[in-house]
Each structure stands twice: as C-alpha cells, then as structure tokens.
Amino acid sequence: MKKIAVLTSGGDAPGMNAAIRAVVRKAHYHKIDVVGVYYGYEGLYNGNFELLDLGSVGGIIQRGGTMLYSARFPEFKETEMQNKAIENLRKEGIDGLVVIGGDGSYRGAMALTEKGFPCVGIPGTIDNDIPGTEYTIGFDTALNTAVEAIDKIRDTATSHENTFIVEVMGRNAGDIALWTGLAAGAETVLIPEEEFEIEDIVARLERSAARGKRHSIIIVAEGVMPGHKLGKILEERTGVQIRVSVLGHMQRGGAPSARDRVLAGRLGARAVELLLEGQAGRAVGIQNHAVVDYDLKEAYENEHKADVSLYTLSKELSI
Amino acid sequence: MKKIAVLTSGGDAPGMNAAIRAVVRKAHYHKIDVVGVYYGYEGLYNGNFELLDLGSVGGIIQRGGTMLYSARFPEFKETEMQNKAIENLRKEGIDGLVVIGGDGSYRGAMALTEKGFPCVGIPGTIDNDIPGTEYTIGFDTALNTAVEAIDKIRDTATSHENTFIVEVMGRNAGDIALWTGLAAGAETVLIPEEEFEIEDIVARLERSAARGKRHSIIIVAEGVMPGHKLGKILEERTGVQIRVSVLGHMQRGGAPSARDRVLAGRLGARAVELLLEGQAGRAVGIQNHAVVDYDLKEAYENEHKADVSLYTLSKELSI
Amino acid sequence: MKKIAVLTSGGDAPGMNAAIRAVVRKAHYHKIDVVGVYYGYEGLYNGNFELLDLGSVGGIIQRGGTMLYSARFPEFKETEMQNKAIENLRKEGIDGLVVIGGDGSYRGAMALTEKGFPCVGIPGTIDNDIPGTEYTIGFDTALNTAVEAIDKIRDTATSHENTFIVEVMGRNAGDIALWTGLAAGAETVLIPEEEFEIEDIVARLERSAARGKRHSIIIVAEGVMPGHKLGKILEERTGVQIRVSVLGHMQRGGAPSARDRVLAGRLGARAVELLLEGQAGRAVGIQNHAVVDYDLKEAYENEHKADVSLYTLSKELSI
Amino acid sequence: MKKIAVLTSGGDAPGMNAAIRAVVRKAHYHKIDVVGVYYGYEGLYNGNFELLDLGSVGGIIQRGGTMLYSARFPEFKETEMQNKAIENLRKEGIDGLVVIGGDGSYRGAMALTEKGFPCVGIPGTIDNDIPGTEYTIGFDTALNTAVEAIDKIRDTATSHENTFIVEVMGRNAGDIALWTGLAAGAETVLIPEEEFEIEDIVARLERSAARGKRHSIIIVAEGVMPGHKLGKILEERTGVQIRVSVLGHMQRGGAPSARDRVLAGRLGARAVELLLEGQAGRAVGIQNHAVVDYDLKEAYENEHKADVSLYTLSKELSI
Q: pLDDT by residue (tens digit) across B259-272?
C-alpha cells in the first residue's frame, strides 16, 4: 500500500479535522501518501481529490468543521456510482480509504469494501449513536457546548425564577440529553429511550414550587419531541409560562475538546494501521479505554443503547 | 446619608452582580450601610430587604444573573404601591436607592424621586438601548456570547455550505445584531433601524453562490422579525434550504466580560457618589470614555439610536 | 445510618463541588442527613461542621474550587488527632464519612476506617494519578484548560515562528502532559515516566527547522524538570531563543467540564451507596465505563501508570 | 491608486487578522487590489509579497495571531533598507501601505512616508499603549484572557485561602494590569504609572487576614517588576507563603473578542479610505466612540497615559 484516501461524510462533528490530521501524519510516518476527497461520497464520485502533505494539516487540530467538507449524497447507494468511485480511486493509485462519519457513512464504506476496495470507518458524529464504540468523535465537544449554554440559561432562569425547556440534538439517541442533563444539574431529562408521563413532569414542577424553588430546567432530546411542542403542553397543564431554548446547530461546531482530539488521534492512527495490515471493512472505536476494531456492519446493524444507569442517576440526583 | 438600598429590575444582564458589588464596596468605603432589595420593585413593596456586608458580595463579580433576583412588577406604576415602598425604605432608615435595570426600571426610580425619595439609575440590560450612555452593562457579554455561538455555527455552515439565519436579541434595538454581525463577519445583517428589501438579500445570496461561495450567515435582530419567518420567506424565494438558529436566553447569562465588569464597577461607584452628593433622579452612563450623569427622564423620553455608520461598514465589508 | 459527613482534602480540583452536590442529593434521596466538614482533616479535628441541605448545594455544580475549602494537615497522621476526629463525628451522630481528594487524603480515610469509623474515598485531583480508577475528577477540566492555553500560545508561536516550552502540572504523573500534548498537537512531550535525551529534542528542532517549520511547542510535565531549566538547556544547545510558559495554578480552577461533572455525579452517588451498604475502607472509581469500588489501600500502595501507548502515538503523530 | 499593500509588525495581537480582512474587503469594495507582505518589514525588504483576494481572508476573522506573520527587524531603520523596500513596492505597482502594529512599527511607516511612499498605521498591540487612540486592537481580548485565567486562579486561592501574585503583560504600560485588576476584583494592583510602598501591601494583607479573609490576589504589571521577585519580597515581609503565576504569552493569542473584531473592522476600513483620499503618514484610532486619524508621529512622540481614575477606583473598591 502506497497511497490511501480519506473523506468526511454526513453531519460534521468537532474533531473531524483532528482525525484527518492523524490519518495524514500516521500515514506519513509509514511513508504512505494521503489523498483528501472533498465533499464526501459526492467527491469520490466526481474525483474531487487533492494530495495532502504535512503542511495541509497544519493548524487544523483545534478547528471545528471539516476541511474536506461534507455532503449528503444518497445516490451513492447505486452500484454504478460506487463503481465510478472505485475507478476514480484506482486511477489515482489509491489502495485504501478511510471514511470519517456516522453509521450512514459506514454503509457506503462497506459497499466499496464488498466490491473489493478496502475501507475503514472512523466514528465522527456528535450523536454518540454508533454501536461498538463507547464514544464517537464530537460527542464530548457537543456536551461541553450544551452544558456551557445551559449554565448561561440557568443564570437567567435563577434570576427570574423561570422554568426553561432546552432542546438538544442527538437524532434518535438520548446520549447528549442524558449527559448534558447530569452535567448541567437539570431537574428533568427526557430521552427517546425512556418513556415518561407528562403527569410526572407536572407533578415535579409543582413539588419544586411547593418547596419554594421556582426555577427549573428541563432537557429534551430532539428525538422525543420539539422543545416548543413540549413547552405548549406544559404551559397548558401548569398555567405557568415556560420558556424554550433550542440550542441548534452551534452544538455541531467549535474547537474540539481535549478528549475529542485525543480520541481522533488514536482512532485516526489505528485506521491507517488497519489498512496497512491488509484489513478491510472494519470500524475503529474505543472500548474499555482501549482502541478496538470490528466489522463495519455491526455499527449499522446493531442498535445503539444509551446508558440507562445514567438515567436512573439523573432522577435520583434531581429530587 | 447613613444607609442606602440597591435593587435589580427588568431583564437580568451579566454584570449586574458586579454593579451590586461596586455599590456595596463603594458605600462601605464611605462608611455607608447597604441594604439589598430582593425581586426588584416587588421586593420594595413587600419590604424584602437584607443588609449586605462585604462578605455578601464576595465571589460574585464573575457571576451572571443577579443575586438580588429580578421580577416584572407593572403594578408599581400605581401611587399607593410607590408610597408603600417609600414607607418601607424610611422604616429601615434608608435614605437613597440605586436601581440597576433598563429604561422601564428608570420610570419607577423617577416616580420615587418625585415623591421625595432620592434614586439613581444604573443601566443594566444587554440591549444597549438606553439613551445617554454609549454602553449598558451586559451588552459586551451578550455580544461575545452571540459571536462565539456564530463562530461555532459557521464551522458547520462552511463544512456543509449551508445558509444560516441567526436570530439575536435586542428588543427594538439593533445594536446586538449590528455589532455581532460585524464581529462574526456575517454576510447580511438586518436591524429594526434600517429598512431592507427581501430582493436585496436574495440577490446577495445568488451573487455569492455565483462566486462559488455557497455558505452564508444572515443575522436578524428579534425586533425585525422572527428568524423562522425570515427563513420561510427566503426558502420560498430562493428554493434553497435555509437553516435557522435562535440564540435565545443564553445571551442573557454567563460570566460578564472584562469590559462589562469594569463598566459595572465605574457606574456602581459613581451612583453611590451621586447619592452622597445629595443628587437625585439621575442616571449614570459612559460617554467619551468618561462616567457621566444625567436626568433619568432623558433615558426614557429620548430615543436610542444605533450607530448607523456601523451598518454602512457592515455592508461594505460583506461584499 | 442516619447521618454522614463529607470533606474535601489536598489540592482542590474542578468537579469537587459537583461531587459534594451528588453526595448531598443522593443522601437526601435516601433520607440521610449530610454534614459538611470545612477545611478537610483540620476541620474534622476542630469540629468545623455544618449541616448541608439541598439548598446548600444549589448552583455549585458549575463552580471550580470547593465550597468546603481544603487544607493541608499533615498532623492528621497522629493517632490522637484521629481519635479526636472520630469523637467529633460520633458526637454529631455521624456514622460515615466521604473523603474527596487524592491518594494522600485516602490514608487518613483508611486510618479512620481501621479505628472503626467507616470511610469511603472519591478521587478528586487534576493529576489523574490514583491507581484503580481510569480518571480522577478534575483531570478532564485541567486538560481542557491547558489545551485552550496552548491553542492561544500557538497563535503567537506561529505568527513569530518561535519555539515554546509549556510546563504543565501533574506532580509525579505525566498524564496531563501526555494528553495535553496529543490534544494540542505538540511537537514534543516530556513526561516523568519516559526517559529522553536532550540530543533527540535538539535533533527534532533542527529537523523541523530544516523542513522550513520554525515554530514548535514542547510540553514538559512539572515532574520532569522546571520549564525554565529546560529552556536554558535548549537555548545553550541550539543557540535559538526559546520562550517558556508555566501554566501554573489556573489548571486547578475553572468551571468543571461536562465529563468531570458526570464523573463526579456518578462517583458521589456510589460513595453514599457504599456507606449505606455497610461497606468501609473503599475507594470508588471508573473502569471500563462502569463505576467500581476497591480497597482504599490499593490506591496508595500501588503505583499509577500513565498510558504508554499514548506516548508512542504522540511520537508518531509529531514527525 | 490601484494597488495597496498590508503588513503586520511587532508583537502579534488578536484581531490583527480581522484588520487584514477589513483592509482587503474594503479595498475590494473600492476595486483596489491588495498585496500581503509576509514577515513585516523584513518581508518588505525581501519582497515577500502575495496578492490577497477575498478568498484569502475567508475564515480568518475569528483567528488569533497574524496570517501575514510578524518579525522584529531593527535593521529597517537604515536608509538603504527603506529604499529597497520602496523599490520592491513600486516594482509591484503598489501605491500605498497599511502597517498594523505598535508604536515601533509606526516609525518605519513614517520613514517610508517621508521618503514619498504613503503609509497609514493601524494600532495592533495588546498593550493599549499607543497615544491618540483610546483602545488598540488586541487589548480587549488580552483583558478577557487574563480575567478568565484569574477567575480560575481565584477558585483555588479561595479553596486554600492562599495569596496569589499574578503577573500580566503590558510592557511599560499598566493598562492590562489596571483593567484586569478591576474586572477580576483583585485586592491589589501594581502598575508602572503609580508608585507604591511595599509597606502598604503588607499592611493590606494583614488587614484582610485580621478581617478573616485569608485569600488575596495581587496583580502586578510586568513593567513594575517580575512577579516572582515581588513574591520573594512579600514572603520575607509577611512570613506567609505567596504563590506566583505568570500569565505569559497566552495573553497574546486566542480568538479576538467581539469588541476587538469590530474595532479592527472600523480601523482597517478607515485606513484604506485614508490612502484613497491621498493622505499619508496618518495613524487611525478610536476616540469618543468615533474613528479618528492623526499624525503618525504623535503616536510615538507623545507618551501614553493610563487612566488614573481607574487606579483610584480600584483602591476604593478593594477595601
């Protein structure tokens, strides 16, 4: 193997640049060339390639977003698209591909691998929803962004004794909501993985008010329902004005946290090693504090599960 | 004068605590006691008072929100409410009152002054909309919060080449939008003080796209229209998906910036001096880098004007 | 068990307050009272106690430092000091003690346990040097503080093409240096656990310079040697001016990161459970993503080991 | 005028990139080309030039440091160096030069202007020590960096009841120390502009201790004396351990604050206008909230004065 390629795909996540940097530097350590593919699978199809030297990845470890850009390209599930991509890669003398993205991106990587082009997947998404790895690149940064925002919201909630609903991201996963809720000391956390009764929230609000505490923060994962919808329901039930804040896309950006950068470094380096070892169709991840690798299919065929013990803890600590 | 009181009123703003601290410490420097009034004018009416010593204001200079809490209390425009408040103050041996808040809060202070109880106003609001002072306490922090959020949003906008609308606060004033837009390098800024044509925004988006730049950030002040409404209009006109982010209440919180803390220190100290000098019905402010004071009425009878030169600059720099 | 106590001891760490909060709230969940001990073991000896209700721990989850204060109190290794402490605890009807601190603090907890007073230890130190737990409370925050500082230093290093040495904390452990180095993309990392040759650093600096890259960041753990000393050695050997920055005590403070708050919540809650289960002389920790507990002695009799694989990775990525 | 050049010189400051961006965009607005000069005056002498289009300054508004690099080049005071620089500029068809830097950099700009090549100066330095402008670009960011660091140090100072000395930058000016001290609520601030007696500091420390407050923060400007030296003196006098933290070069870096970015935008745009108006040998600045310009010589022949009223305020508020 003399030359590999790297691309980012799906929603961007802080730390993707740090992962690209690790792929490039680790490859150079082994005297392998690296080609960057712009715009994810669309760029693979269009042959939008550029050779990345050490200078190309200078000063990017601390930047959010992805220097290779990302794009949704659902057409890539078609066979002819995939064939064209492999043709483009071969023409450039490229023998392996590192895909940084979410579980959707892994499907494309598996398709190419099955057609004989070796790919390795690196989990890059803020949602932390990829089976087989305890953490995904970007999750820790998104958490800190959400928690810092809620710390600010709490200032004003406390000063005015208001109840706030804060909607956080996570698609169908409750990880961001759950960890954010624990870290921000939220009074209530709603995640898609756990059923809840509006009655219970109302009762909790009333119990707090009775105890003299009139401000409260409710975190709701976007996978449960929109924050504004929940706000309307609760206002109708309690007769109290509820304020709603939707944190939105700022959760996807920002300088990656220390933890996300180290994770990106470890996973990026391991991905290159796997290709050099002749492995294909593998995803890298972190488990028990160690870097692991497993079949790409496990990542999208299995179901991600949020850590339910945190949910119980959250309830106990927010009495 | 042996004892004065201090309260915070209206929307809270970062730096209010630093202003309370300055009032207390400056008063102690002159051997004057300070009584804190909880919940603004409501607390004045209810006699919700507590003596504040130096220890009470330890460790608050860096905290958002207000340790005295705030509340809306429209009933305070009634004469009997005001009389009761003065009665409560006199009963405690209090001879002067410092009110930290926005222009609405100043009306209450003027009413009390006209009834013979000397009040001084300190401008505390993120909106920067109080005539007579170049800056209000909290504005600088809100700016930095908004700019940091947009820096994060830009990461993802750039990675995906999306157009984003970001709605910022400011009530009827465009200051937050204007300064934030300049500082964040926004492509378009919409403020209530300046008319605009949807056509122009559409044309600008198309011009950028033609130049190959497909991501764009539009800042809209809440006083213009809701971000989501603007998003719908632009989507209909351009046929392109527009993402909307409403920064919301996090703009009110957070540790105050260095500038807001210094401003709070200067204005808080001056407010105490004014009361000691026997002045009443005055507002403090900053002009030409110096602390000034002026009739409270000027603050709410005049109209705040955003700096139009910044608007022109914003247009020239975002070609 | 009806009443337990909690104290913080040794160097303070961000997240100690979040741990105190978790202890108090989890205990209240089980209808147990909690007494806070001020100034660590010194306060235990002096009977400096205060009952902590839910309100006492309101608004502290996001604050650095420790609301219970900390103090060095080496005299506590004397038997009569320990007896007096137990006497004080018994007199208040306290049946168990949670100690938040480093390995030194664990010795005191073990001594009390051996005298019949059940104690549990929570690892609170930025140094990450406690055997038996993968992470200590405060480590993640200290990392992020160090990395953000180095991001800023890199701005100026790059602009002027200077070489910088940055000294970070960690006592005898290299964890902060190692993780910070990886996350900040440092060119060289020196930790106490790994020998190094000055020649190698000089050669690396010269190699970089030959490649046209004239700025460089060297992270040195305080356990290796003072940054200024290393600076002098390198200046003599290379003839090039080297700038030195000692990050210092800011690494101990600041709002805890999301990760540290969640860790503090989990460990604080588990510590209370252990006491309720009648266990004594245990330390809580995190391993393989799960909360564990083990004999307090293991924490100070075993030796902490930094993750050497990260050191190798750091070298490979900084070619 | 069809083409102008821009360079950064002297110590770098956050916001220099925002100023470069404003120069480039404003020039393009007027259909003028802009050439970037790398490495300050050294690059002017060496002809190290590059044409900057709108894309060159994309995504730099939020970055610390300077994309044009900076360098000390004392040789530039020699006439032949200056002649060569003008020759290089003329050869490229460049008719004007914008210099972003401190007062030292202004001398070079004046020398070129006197030889017939029109230059304009923009004040870029964290030290805020340029006469004729109330603020320099970078000062506000450095303040916030210092204040955030001291907020963290205060956490640990409070927890352990230690006295800390924090040394901040500013060369011969006390502005950073003075504003930082006020914003961080420091107990003592020492600046080069005001004499002080060690006795007074000792007395203040003892007074605080007697009042039961045993932690204290002393800010010392680097222009007064090194922090470690002051620490030794105070330890000898009080017999109490004093901790010292030297904030160092991190004060020069980091994403510029909102205020610094707006200031950079305003001054950068005005500098271009001045050249277009045919003016030369002018410095731009901010006074009374408005952009002004004045003779470059005033900037280095006059003496900068810190605002003494802030020093008095600082003393009154830290009783």
A: 999 999 999 999 99
| Half-sphere CA count of B317, side-chain side, radius 13 A | 33
Contact indicator for B22, B124 with CB cutoff of 8 Å? no
pLDDT value of position A308: 86
Dist CA C244 CA C78 (whole Å): 42
Write out the two tokens for B101: 């808040």
CB neighbour burial string for C74-107, b if at least 16 within 10 angstroms, e if fewer: eebeeeebbebbbebbeeeebbbbbbbbbbbbbb
Q: Are A238 and A210 in contact (CB under 8 A)?
A: no
Looking up tokens 């998906």, which residue turns up?
A: B241
Residue C203 CB burial class (10 angstroms; 0-12, 13-18, ≥19):
exposed
Residues 6 or more apart whose Cβ sits within 8 Å of residue B210: none
Helix (H, G, I), strand (E, B) or coil at D309: helix
Contacts of D157 in chain C (CB under 8 A): 249
| B258 vs D contacts (CB less than 8 Å) | 140, 143-144, 146-147, 179-180, 183
For residue D245, the tally of other CB atoms under 10 A from its CB is 24
- For residues B247 and B236, give the distance between their C-alpha atoms in angstroms, rounded to a whole number: 23
Structural contact between residues C97 and C119, judged by C-beta atoms closer than 8 angstroms: yes
What does the angle CA A163 – CA B242 – CA D15 come to, to the nearest 5 degrees? 80
Task: State whether D253 and C155 contact (CB < 8 Å).
Answer: yes
Contact A156 B246 (CB under 8 A): no
Which letter does DSSP use for residue A61 in this model?
Answer: T
Q: How many angstroms separate the Cα of B145 from the Cα of each of A176, A227, A305, D257, D258? A: 21, 22, 34, 10, 9
Amino acid (one-letter) located at D61: I
Q: Does D12 touch chain C (CB under 8 A)?
A: yes
The shortest C-alpha distance from B210 to chain D (Å) reads 14
Please tell me the distance from the alpha carbon of residue A88 to that of residue C35, in angstroms, as a whole number: 69
User: Residues of B comprising the binding site for Mg(2+)?
Assistant: 103
> pLDDT by residue (tens digit) across D104-126?
899 999 999 999 999 999 999 99
Structure tokens at B119: 């009040």
Residues of chain A in contact with residue C58, where contact means CB-CB under 8 angstroms, are 213
Cα dihedral A17, A23, A25, A28 in deg (nearest 10): -150
Pairwise CA distance, residues D112 & C175, whole Å: 52
Q: How far is CA C269 from each of CA B236, B261, C297, rounded to the nearest angstrom? A: 53, 37, 21
Any B CB within 8 A of D176 CB: no
Residue ranges at the known binding site of B for ADP:
21-25, 154, 185-187, 211, 213-215
pLDDT per position as a tens digit, C73-120: 999 999 999 999 999 999 999 999 999 999 889 999 999 999 999 999
Catalytic annotation on A127? Answer: yes
- pLDDT for B214 beyond 80: no
Probe site for chain B from D151, D305, D316 (most B CB atoms < 10 A): D316
Q: Name, in order, each residue with C-beta under 8 angstroms of D100's C-beta and a sequence gap of 6 or more.
A: D6, D7, D8, D9, D16, D19, D20, D66, D121, D122, D124, D137
The partner residues of D119 in beta bridges, in order of sequence, read D97
Structure tokens that stand for A128 in this block: 């932390």
Structure tokens at B309: 């030169």
Do the Cβ atoms of D151 and C70 come within 8 Å?
no
C72 is in an annotated binding site: yes
Phi, psi of B202 (to 5 degrees): -60, -45
Pairing between strand C49-52 and C33-37? antiparallel
Torsion-angle region of residue D125: left (phi > 0), alpha (psi -120 to 50) or beta?
beta
> pTM of the prediction?
0.97
The C-alpha atoms of residue B159 and residue A312 are separated, in whole angstroms, by: 37
